[in-house]
Amino acid sequence: MFLSFRRMPLPGGGLFLVVLILLAGCTAQGLQKASQALEKTADALDQAAEPVAGPDSAGKMIRVPATPNPPPTPVEPVETKPLETPAVEPPRFEDQGDFKLGYAESSDPTANEWMVYLKESRHFEGIVDGLNAFVALPRDVPVVFQDCGEANAFYLPEETTLVLCYELVSELQALFAENTAEEEDPTKSTLFATEFIFYHEAGHALIHLLDLPATGREEDSVDQLATFLLIERGDEAGPGIALNAAAAFMLWSSLEEPGELAFWDEHALGQQRFYNIACWVYGRNPEGFANLIDDEVLPAERAESCPDEYYKLSMAWARLLEPYLKEGT
Ligand SMILES: [Zn+2]
């Protein structure tokens, strides 16, 4: 049996202690490393924790600052290259579409339990509403939870459809349930990790539909976008949600051979994604997340460049999206 679901409201309250975790009883070397990283992450989250907004408010508050905060005092003088701007700004266009959330029926009882739970929690309704209030689209993009036959999530450009597989949600639940301290709530972690993955796939949709240039390798770009949206949307929970997803990627990579999971095939290794996300979260708020600096989480050498790295990626994404932002965002 899988769920001892806590009914709504979902996230809120004490940050993903979830990640505190871990792995008591696990002996595999990879898991020990993941454990150290995740414990450190949890410490940082505790340190940075403020009262956390619930999902309903979280989804409505996406904001891209017109001028993202400058990086707080880089350790070394940062080479300032002007960010590239398009010679001609694309015209602002009329909003003609929305992300449209749906839940497919399944013959699998576990998937159906998820379907009922996801619907009742309205967690993703808030997230999708927030994104729709933020960015204009040329057409609708169905966002469908459904059976896939694999633990995966993807954007289908031919159908302009974003698919989140029930199998992925179940696998995340199992991953967190196995590696989370008993008093923690693996379901909350599962929702948060799925939320990050939704933003990641929404990034693929935006790049496709808005014909955006990726800010590097597309898979890395959309991880940047997911982290950027979570951090800048204006609630305290965002950075922790990004770190929670990073924890899932680290756990996954500890448990699976690279490439073994379809979701990973085109992506950086889980550990790399973990370090990247930790770097960007730290880079946005070095004081709040100073505890992330650790050889197993965010090596000091990498941390030095993180404020500049986050500043550049946030500027790039803010400029790329600016023509498509709705009034009032
Ligand atoms: Zn992807």
UniProtKB/TrEMBL annotation:
InterPro entries: DUF4344. Residues 51-80 are annotated as: Disordered. Pfam families: DUF4344 (PF14247). This is DUF4344 domain-containing metallopeptidase. It comes from Candidatus Iainarchaeum sp.
